[in-house]
Specification:
This protein is mostly helical. The chain has 5 helices and 3 strands; from the N terminus they run E-H-H-H-E-H-E-H. The protein has a 3-stranded parallel sheet, with helices on one face.
Length: 130
């Protein structure tokens, strides 16, 4: 089983800082482990691969502020599209992260950023539809 984590951050430590947030709980299961367990309670022991996919979503001001709705909307659109593509088993990954839709998913700025991320994913992993 392979798991795919998709996340967003504007923190100074970037994706590594965000990933550390998901793994950095000493006294309780990490948020990553909890989410993996929600998906499949025996997945942690069977997981043989982990993909942390990271792509720039753009330098637009809306993506670089403390307010998260635009980044969350991009993440939502990307996850929705990847779930459809990955359902065909190429590459053999399962998206386990989750995010809710919000009012900004309809903005062209957000939709274009999501399309760029999906393009980066396809460039890296190959065409997920063939």
């Amino acid at each position: 089983m392979g798991a795919a984590y998709i996340g967003m951050t504007v923190g100074r430590n970037g994706i590594f800082g965000r990933w550390g947030d998901h793994l950095g709980r000493a006294l309780e299961k990490s948020s990553f482990q909890r989410r993996l367990h929600e998906f499949d309670d025996s997945a942690w022991g069977r997981m043989n691969d982990l993909v942390i996919f990271w792509a720039e979503i753009g330098e637009e001001e809306q993506f670089l502020t403390v307010e998260t709705s635009h980044r969350e909307a991009v993440e939502y659109l990307v996850q929705r599209q990847l779930r459809i593509a990955l359902a065909q088993g190429r590459p053999p990954l399962t998206v386990i992260s989750k995010v809710r839709s919000n009012r900004t998913v309809q903005l062209p700025l957000v939709q274009k950023a999501a399309e760029r991320v999906i393009g980066h994913f396809t460039d890296h992993f190959g065409d997920t539809h063939s």
